[in-house]
Amino acid sequence: MLRLGTLFLRNPAPFALGPTLIRFPPSCFPPYLRTRSIPPPRPTLPTLKDHAAIFEGRSTSDLLRALLVLRLCATTPFVTHSEALLDSARSLLGDRIAMSAVQESFYKHFCAGKEPADVWARMNALRAHGIGAILDYAEEEDLLKHCKPRQQEQEQGVTAAVAAAKEVEAGGGGAEARAKGKGRYAVITARQPLGGETIIQSRVAARTYDHSGEDDECERHATAFLSAIDTAATLPGQGFAAIKLTALGDPGLLEHLAAAVGSVRELFQTYDLDGDGYITQAEFEECFQKVAAEQGSTSSVDERSELWRWLDPEQQGRIDYISWTQRLNLAHMPELAASLEQQARATGPGRPWELSPSERVQLQGLLRRLERLVERAVSKGVKLMIDAEQSSLRPAIDHIAHELMRRHNTAAGGASGPGEAVIFVTYQAYLRDAQQRLADDLDRARRERYTLGAKLVRGAYLHLERRRAAEAGVPSPVWDHIEQTHASFDGCLEVLLGAVKAGRAEVMMGSHNQASVEAAVAAMSKLGLEPEDAPVYFGQLMGMADNLSFTLGHHGYKVFKYCPYGSVEKVIPYLLRRVNENQYILKGGKQDVALLWAELWRRALHDPNQSPLARVLAPLQSSSSSSVA
């Protein structure tokens, strides 16, 4: 019996037969009916509920495991106490038994294996359904072990942070608080307390690497990323690999640089006297003399003119923020930020902006490791995605990413202009400035003639961002309501797909939201972006939203699963974050569970190859069918 709706071909010619729509391939029709003058039908995803097609090739034991894991993830008490339950199991049963239970359940559901080569087995199963893999090194140290020796230091930090927050609250916050070294500059940092725990203690909230071993740990992470790139290059189709900069360098250093970048933006706003978004030469010279006088120094007209020519090499007479940042080197950001601090006459215990000699060495090491990864990705034809992290680190990560895109997302063979995107940077729609940031970045890419590589997600650190902002006494950087995040995501997606159509961007859409995926499919059809040709990629995590991934793959869209790998013991933080994504499980995950139940019942009752009961019932079903005939 022909099962309808399980095969989707591009540009099919529909033929209506009663209430059912049968689709024939174009080859069934004469050439004049296959021309582009006939608009193709709007693409849909009719097999989102076809559980037999979605789970084809997966064993029944695999489906049972998936059902168990998803049901546990939807159980609030289990999610709430997951860390405590794991610690108790390890204490009572021992690490070997506890880790074995984790491996046979959550690990096999959410992870691809221990080594990059282990991805091959999962990849072969995915590839049969048109799904690619994004290699993701998911190992993290047991950060609580690193924190325990510093317990006294942390307790002192908590007391200091609470006192500082009370002082800020009493003083009204704002500029006065920042002038005292409080506010966003001193209260909360990558290594300071966060609601009673440090960021590196919060294993669930975000992936953060501890660097007590410094270079040795960073080099080990870099080696693992290189292995992921090499494995991604050997997989069929386009290879992707994901990296995090906090694995290659100290998060505290990145946060220091990020805050400096933010201050340099404020410095630009200081020089922009009329607030029109541009600095003229007259504004620059007026402010420069004022800053120099407050610092007790002087400058000549020639010195100021020479500096202006450096900032405005095209001699346009004015510069905007993009032009301003184009002329700045990340290593010099702290010194420029120091000018702003001195101008504001900041005092108190705030961290000095200048990089120490050891920090300069750390920065050089981070950039050196990153360059090795980029060179390997370029030589292997693998696209490299720089993952999003906390917003306090984002300015530095973005600055580095755009410099890499400027060098590598250009035409090959020495030709000028945009080319294939090798480097991707992540946009988190739950951040209030996501749309403005995207517009600025597209403008920057257009000016510097490179292709913007963009991964669009909703965001993974919601509670962490809100807690950091509350502790620091500043407005939250994320939207207050989910509807605002949805609107931001939709707006960013519309802009990005338009940029793809114009040849200015490539996009990886990371979403488990069915409405967003369907909207993207409809927008691609409207813009004439062919799934097989357009650089539009869809991504979902392994173990989640299989109905979206497999349906997109069956329809010829470029869809990928994040394939985390690593030893069981060192991917526990990653697994805990998957368990804690309760919002997804309670909403989109319900569809996964319903499809799993439907397929398991189908196999139990109607698939003799999968079920003894079905083999017993098969003759009865056959006899019943014959009687009806």
What's the layout of helices and strands?
Blueprint: E1 13-17, E2 20-24, H1 51-54, H2 60-73, H3 76-80, H4 82-93, H5 95-110, H6 119-127, E3 131-137, H7 143-147, H8 151-171, H9 174-179, H10 215-234, E4 239-243, H11 251-271, E5 279-280, H12 281-294, H13 301-311, E6 318-319, H14 321-326, H15 333-343, H16 357-380, E7 382-386, H17 394-408, E8 423-428, H18 434-448, E9 452-457, H19 462-472, H20 482-501, E10 505-510, H21 514-527, E11 536-541, H22 546-554, E12 558-565, H23 572-579, H24 582-586, H25 588-606, H26 612-628
Parallel strand pairs: 3-4, 3-12, 4-7, 7-8, 8-9, 9-10, 10-11, 11-12
Antiparallel strand pairs: 1-2, 5-6
The level of helicity is 40-55%
Give the N-terminus to C-terminus distance in angstroms.
14 Å
Q: Tell me the structural class.
A: alpha/beta
Instruction: Catalogue the unreliable spans.
Output: 1-42, 142-213, 344-351
Which band does the percent of strand residues land in?
Answer: 5-15%
Quick gist of this model?
The protein is an alpha/beta fold and 629 residues long. It is 53% helix and 10% strand. The longest helix has 24 residues, at 357-380.
Structural overview:
By secondary structure, the chain is α/β, with parallel strands linked by helices. Helix content is 53%, strand content 10%. Among the domains are: 1-39, no CATH class; 140-278 and 320-510, Alpha-Beta Barrel (TIM Barrel), CATH 3.20.20. It has helices spanning 51-54, 60-73, 76-80, 82-93, 95-110, 119-127, 143-147, 151-171, 174-179, 215-234, 251-271, 281-294, 301-311, 321-326, 333-343, 357-380, 394-408, 434-448, 462-472, 482-501, 514-527, 546-554, 572-579, 582-586, 588-606, 612-628; strands at residues 13-17, 20-24, 131-137, 239-243, 279-280, 318-319, 382-386, 423-428, 452-457, 505-510, 536-541, 558-565. The strands form three sheets. The protein has an eight-stranded parallel barrel, surrounded by seven helices. α17 links the parallel β7 (382-386) and β8 (423-428). α4 crosses α5 (95-110) and α20 packs parallel to α21 (514-527). The longest helix is centred in the middle third of the chain and has 24 residues, at 357-380. It starts with 12 loop residues before the first strand and ends with a helix. The relative contact order is 0.14. Residues 1-42, 142-213 and 344-351 have low confidence and may be disordered.
